[in-house]
Amino acid sequence: MEAELNSICETLAARTLPRWEALPDLELYMDQVTSLVGRYLQDDRGLTASMVNNYVKHKVMPAPVRKKYTREHLAYLIVICTLKPVLPISTIRQMMDDELAEQELPPFYDAFCDLFEESCQETAKRHLKHKTASRAGILCRAALYAGAEQSLALQTAAAQPEEEKE
User: Fold this and answer.
1) Which residues contact 38 (CB under 8 A, 6 or more apart)?
2) What is the pTM for the complete model shown?
3) Quick one: which of 9, 43, 106, 160 could link to 124 by a disulfide (CB 3.0–4.6 Å)?
4) pLDDT per residue as tens digits for the range 69-82
5) How many CB atoms lie within 10 A of CB 39?
6) By three-state DSSP, how is residue 124 classified?
7) 3-state secondary structure 50-109
8) Tens digit of each residue's pLDDT (9 = 90 or more) over 93-113
9) Per-chain mean pLDDT for the chain
10) Alpha-carbon gap, residue 107 to 148, rounded angstroms
């Protein structure tokens, strides 16, 4: 199991996301967008057209122009799809609204990519330092860390900012 864990952790630590400048700077159709985002995220569950339409409907991301999507839409979808397994869509929307009120999308997105990669690398390091031999031990540790991190994220999202308390 140790060799398999090493391989899994190496793969996790090597995960990257395309930076803003690496995203296609041309208009794309829905099927191209869903395919690209799936490839970028190495996600076999897949992003569907109905999911994208739902994000637009709920104003989590901007609407396409004449059914065409841009680099901006790809960046939004990569952030949304990465965070969605852990955070409610309403929290993702609020976080993005808050961040994009402070800075433009390109630097926000590139910083998000950096944080994604840092998180993958740190998770891999953490699991490699625990020489758990059993599959059950690895699963348990990963699930417990994931649960603790999700709890922190949800409690932080629910916390009222200081400026709103006054």
Assistant:
1) 44, 46, 47
2) 0.89
3) 9
4) 999 999 999 999 99
5) 10
6) helix
7) HHHHHHHHCCCCCCCECCEECHHHHHHHHHHHHHCCCCCHHHHHHHHHHHHHHCCHHHHH
8) 999 999 999 999 999 999 999
9) 91
10) 28
Rounded Cα distance, 68 and 28, in Å: 5
Residue 28 in 3-state DSSP? strand
Provide the b/e sequence for 69-90 (b: ≥16 CB within 10 Å): bbbebbbbbbbbbbbbeebeee
| Residue 128's pLDDT band (cuts 50, 70, 90) | confident
Q: What's the CA gap between 80 and 96, in Å, rounded? A: 9
Residues with Cβ within 8 Å of 80's Cβ and at least 6 positions away in sequence, in order, are: 55, 60, 61, 89, 92
Contact present, 142 and 132 (Cβ < 8 Å): no
- The whole-number average pLDDT for the span 31-37 is 95
Tokens of 82: 């990465």
| Statement: residue 67 has pLDDT above 60 | yes
